[in-house]
Write a structure and sequence with these properties.
31% helix, 2 domains, alpha/beta, globular, Alkaline Phosphatase, subunit A, 14 helices
Length: 401
């Protein structure tokens, strides 16, 4: 694959615009009763109109057979190799809420969760408690004192919070306490490198104290921690591609990731309609837009097939507002698959359509997994998708003599 330095050499500034619409967790699997995926089930006349004029295929967010997290899935779509740019969830959550993260801080993504009387996790998201409850409980946990470190707990959204340890000599090389399963106990944090032993002990002390404080706050009676990380160094999209990119996303993790790669993060209320209104009002100010839709992923994780179908149909209903802007390139895809029948992320490749006046349309009738598998783009790594976006927008010069 072409290197980052070679990409810099052939990238150029143009007035053309690219819109990357990411339906989080878009890919699905057939419903056992109908044999159709969520995309195949949804009534999508506007997507179907667009896909007939587009070139299509399937993308692997990380690699075939590998189930990606949200950060690697999005990094690939932004043109970064997620296997070499390992960015912890904690940093992304902290940046997403505009927290002033220091270079030496260790940050972790936290979930309020529910445990039973035996200490086993029975709900990793504590019933998706309200953001107001999250604020209340985060303030409670902020009172935890640990010798040698400052403990900072910041609410994020619903059941999510960020834990920041601030001090000297801290290391993020610590295993996660989140088992990412139900019916099993919260894991003990273990040091992955000798220099992380003190940090691991501090994390275990925090988790123990949190359990005592939250004992009477069921369903949010315990915490899970993952994505221990420190601030990374990464080239921005402007440096790599000469883009002036913007992000329209309501969830802090995605806003944090966008900020990390140099996007201007635009404020939004969170609904799909509001996000498109932000796109319309800022369209003249940027040449690359990342628009993130969360509803599809949340429904998939909850195992709610019909709700995911309805989320896809809501996007389809509002799609004409995007196409009316006439961007030179429209790409619609997901960061990973979240089949409702699995209730979680999966390794399955994700359908993608790329519309541009300069593309070779595949004349596919319906945007879905099986139809896109026959598209002319074939199956390829997600990190190569931005090269196609740039090319169709005329943002590359000729490579070589």
């Amino acid at each position: 694959m072409i290197t980052a330095e070679q990409i810099k050499e052939v990238s150029r500034k143009t007035p053309t615009r690219i819109v990357l619409l990411v339906l989080d967790g878009l890919g699905g699997l057939p419903h056992p009763e109908t044999g159709k995926t969520e995309l195949e089930t949804a009534k999508t006349p506007n997507l179907d109109k667009l896909v007939r004029m587009s070139t299509c295929g399937l993308v692997d967010p990380v690699s075939p057979g590998i189930t990606p997290g949200s950060a690697p899935g999005h990094l690939g779509l932004f043109g970064y190799d997620p296997t070499t740019h390992i960015i912890g969830r904690g940093v992304l959550e902290a940046l997403g809420i505009d927290f002033d993260l220091h270079k030496t801080d260790v940050a972790a993504r936290g979930n309020f969760c529910t445990i039973d009387e035996k200490g086993n996790v029975i709900d990793r998201r504590a019933g998706r408690i309200s953001t107001e409850k999250c604020i209340e409980l985060s303030n409670l946990l902020s009172g935890i004192k640990i010798k040698g470190v400052q403990v900072i707990v910041q609410p994020v959204k619903e059941h999510r919070f960020v834990l920041i340890l601030r001090g000297t000599g801290l290391s993020p090389a610590v295993s996660e306490t989140d088992p990412q399963l139900t019916g099993v106990p919260v894991r003990k944090a273990e040091s992955l490198l000798p220099q992380a032993r003190v940090t691991a002990d501090m994390i275990n002390e925090f988790v123990s104290a949190a359990r005592k404080l939250l004992a009477n706050h069921r369903p949010a009676n315990m915490v899970l921690l993952r994505g221990f990380s420190q601030f990374p160094e990464i080239a921005t999209m402007k440096e790599l591609y000469q883009l002036t990119p913007a992000a329209i996303a309501s969830y802090p993790m995605y806003r944090g990731l966008a900020k990390l790669v140099g996007m201007n993060v635009l404020n939004t209320g969170g609904s799909i309609e509001e996000e498109l209104a932000i796109l319309e009002s800022n369209y003249a100010n940027h040449d690359f837009f990342f628009v993130h839709i969360k509803k599809t992923d949340s429904a998939g994780e909850d195992g709610d097939f019909e709700r995911k179908v309805k989320a896809i149909e809501e996007v389809d209903f509002l799609l004409p507002r995007l196409t009316a802007l006439n961007p030179e390139v429209i790409v619609i895809t997901g960061d990973h698959s979240t089949p409702a029948v699995l209730k979680g992320h999966s390794w399955h490749p994700v359908p993608v359509l790329l519309y541009s006046p300069s593309c070779r349309p595949d004349n596919i009738a319906h945007f879905a997994e099986r139809t896109c598998s026959g598209g002319s783009l074939g199956r390829f790594p997600a990190r190569e998708l931005i090269l196609l976006m740039m090319a169709h927008a005329g943002k590359f010069t000729k490579f070589g003599a």
